[in-house]
Amino acid sequence: MWKELQEQYSDVEAHFAFKKLNSSFLGKFSYLLHMVRACYELATSKFFIIDDFYFPIYVIKPRKGTEVVQLWHGSGALKKFGLSTIGKSYGPSIAYLKHVKIHSNYSRVYVSSSEVIPFYAEAFGMHEHQIYPLGIPRNDYFFRSDEINKLKEKFFQDFPELKDKKLILYAPTYRGKSHYQDVFTCPIDIGKMKEELQTEYALLIHLHPYMQSGLVLEKEDMNFAYHIHEKYNIQELLVLSDMLITDYSTVFVDYSLLCRPIVFFTKDLKEYVEERDFYYDYEEIIPGPLFTETATLIKWIQEGKYNLQLVNQFRKRFFEYIDGNTSKRIVKHLMETTKGKESGITEKVS
Q: Dihedral of the CA atoms 194, 269, 54, 180 (nearest 10)?
């Protein structure tokens, strides 16, 4: 989105403050220094843009004229988050909320469709009129044919053995709380998938950034299954794949824009509902079949009877726009709705 901002408003200065938390002592100290810098950026920016939980924002009072803009990292709405999880083991405790008002101080939020506005209002404790269904900027990538062609060329240079394979992407949700991951045990029998599918298919596996250490592939499975991380991000892998397997990750909402087969695999639905819960009935909302056994998953893949009409109906429901122009809309909305407002500070985006 910042590229679009530069193209439309070249006089606006953009700063970046990215930091991944390492839960070690040194990692936490480093993050503390990062928060000091974040406070400076908050004090000197017109727009402070985030896409996830961001602790410094919830423990300060933003300077008058600063707008905190939330571009939440999940499209649509499926599993509950934020204030919607109070009372669940996954959610914040009442005692913690007395000291840290999580998801407070947002000026505006951008989401994929008007249908999910009430859920975001609940999760962030906001008024619905502060939430705008203009789209998710990162999904503009799906519509950039030149960049996608370059991506494919690069990927098949790195993995020439996959050029004639159909690519299945397995992207499960994050397991754990905050930055502390649970031990990840793959519920799918990758060896069995290899036996039945390796002639025609290959399996790409992408875990959440905080879960990268949680997967060990058997040596004999490595010419079928590929754990892809760091070199290719999730949006790129979605574009490259012919089919998506997931569980509770909202990555399938993004993937629906491509209108390709989506299948769901999980063995702990009841436990997940108790731990976190969903905004919808999970089994009714998902645009694809749900399996709990590897054998039935394999059979479904082999038969190839995919209901893409269901996927198309889903994307129309959860995306107000399907055009690749989200960044333009949001930048225009940000700048035009603040014209004439007195901020008292230099126009800057962090």
A: -70
